[in-house]
Write a structure and sequence with these properties.
By secondary structure, the chain is α/β, with parallel strands linked by helices. The protein has three domains: 101 residues, 2-Layer Sandwich (Alpha-Beta Plaits); 265 residues, Peptidase S8/S53 domain (Rossmann fold, 3-Layer(aba) Sandwich); 135 residues, Jelly Rolls, CATH 2.60.120.1290. The chain has eleven helices and 31 strands. The strands form six sheets. It has an eleven-stranded mixed β-sheet, sandwiched between helices. Strands 1, 2, 3, 4, 5 and 6 form a six-stranded mixed β-sheet that branches. A six-stranded antiparallel β-sheet has the order 15-23-17-21-20-19, covered by helices on one side. Helix 7 packs parallel to helix 10, helix 8 packs parallel to helix 9 and helix 10 packs across helix 11. The longest helix is centred in the C-terminal third of the chain and has 18 residues. It is globular and about 70 Å long. It starts with a strand and ends with a strand. Pfam families: Peptidase_S8. This is Peptidase S8/S53 domain-containing protein. One of its GO terms (biological process) is proteolysis.
Length: 601
Amino acid sequence: MGTLDPRLRHLLGSVAGRPVPSGGAAAAVPALASRVAWRPGKGWGVVDVLIRSADLSWARKLGPTDMVTSDTVNKIGVYTGRVAVDQLETLARHESVDRVEASRPLFPELNVSRDDVRAGALHDNPTPVRGSGVVVAVVDSGIDYTHPNFRHDDGSSRILYLWDQGARVWGDAWVPYGIDYTKADLDRALGAADPFAVVPHSDDEVGHGTHVAGIAAGNERSAMGMYSGIAPEADLIVVALEGTPGVTLGTSARLADAVEYAVNQAAPRPVVVNISQGTNGGGHAGETLIEQKLDELASRPGVVIVKSAGNERDWSVHAGGRIGARQSVTLDLLVPRGNRQDEIAEIWFGGDDHITVAVQAPSGLVSRAVAPGQRHTFTTIAGNDVTIDSVPDSAGTGDTSVTLIVTAGMAEEIETGTWQIRLGADQVCDGRYDAWIERAPEDDGGREHSRFADGSCDPSRTITIPGTARRVITVGSHVTRPRILTDASGLGRLSPFSSSGPTRLGARKPDLSAPGEVIVSARCSNSAMPFGPDPRHTALSGTSMAASHVAGAAALVLSVRPDLTGEQVKQLLQVAARRGGAGPDAPTTTGARAGSTSQPR
């Protein structure tokens, strides 16, 4: 029998004993719906999940509304699927299932440069290295396929495949949901008077995917190539994740499907997959199923996966430290006024440590202390529902995870003020603890968000998942163009927003850094972002921009050595990188012969 994600257990608990809805989707929305990729359907609806299993025999035991969305044979047995809520326990109990994980919302990591990565020198060599023969796959918000940066000189498309996961077509001959377009489809659209009448796909209003694709592989032919991408002769595969523009960008299950699709469609050619979104949900040491899936794919020759480090460093989303035997530690979690969204935090510590967790609400009520292997639910004086779920050997790591879930319950919003998370140690072997706040799906950073108080927060260990995967190249941001043009004092330094390492278990991350501030690249035609130097360009910042520089650099390497693995490409980029950064967790900054990275001093 497998283990069920605490989020899914909470979802089941919230509907247990309640009459099954029959009045339509609006009446059937359960707790944590936006946190677990819930969709309306018969009864309590369906959820997307990731499943670790020895085989697919469980798929035959589910109901008619369930489906496997990714069933490619793989070494590690990680699959994705869509399952009816009332079938979750049946799935978890199946003898072949080891683990069922909720599909968690992901967030875009958006918060001069080509010269900094020294790609121009390679482009202008007597034997130019420009990415020919390699596929760059951009898994993001979509793309403006009409933009000149993604077209050949004859006007035809450089995009081989475009899978729009959110298209309101449930699958075609090649994909389990959404619709995919081939190069022939895109060429036909580009030849029409109204391209979007033929292929009705556009990027979101931010244009995140278009901007990222332009950095990695745009072939700017105007303005003297000033805004050309790093690998301008690479072909493209684009997967448009479904999300809320400027807020969320897909889920972990949909990301797994997207990366597998890109790798399979690119074969037998080498491929670099760029991922510029992430989440705080998980143990930050590569144990989530999406990270295991990416590690398996990145172990194949000719497959490189690049991930942005995240922009969480100054968001106060992590707290950590050490606790001794018979000691206690209190973490202050600050919840702003008017917060109607569920709050989720995870606390992780070693399996040999016996640490209890209790919670005190701002209104004063204190829960009992929850030990490893226990689960406790209570209601605060204000009417909020609180669950503390402590799971030993979480995700098969040997370590304990404690998931804290706060929902509004009978109240209109989460209690405003300081929530105290109280850790109490009985026996301790190591004593290290780490806690993360999982961002809410509606949180775009434009409003005040929940955070740890200054006395509790720790800016280290803030790499977003799946960036803590072992074989994924994780990229931080450094400054190449100051926000204030007269101030050059910060050039070359790590961006203050760029997430820091190490991982929870101490592995060094990020692996590299690259330009990520005020980066000019392609602007989609429907963008709400301001013009850059002209209507076809705009300037954005974030580790999303940094990751796409390294994705382009990796494509240049693969164009010369298509047989290399992602680990080998990472090592080459690190060896060729400039030393820089600030502090022991600073990454290498891209500055290699094939891209500029920076290694710590």
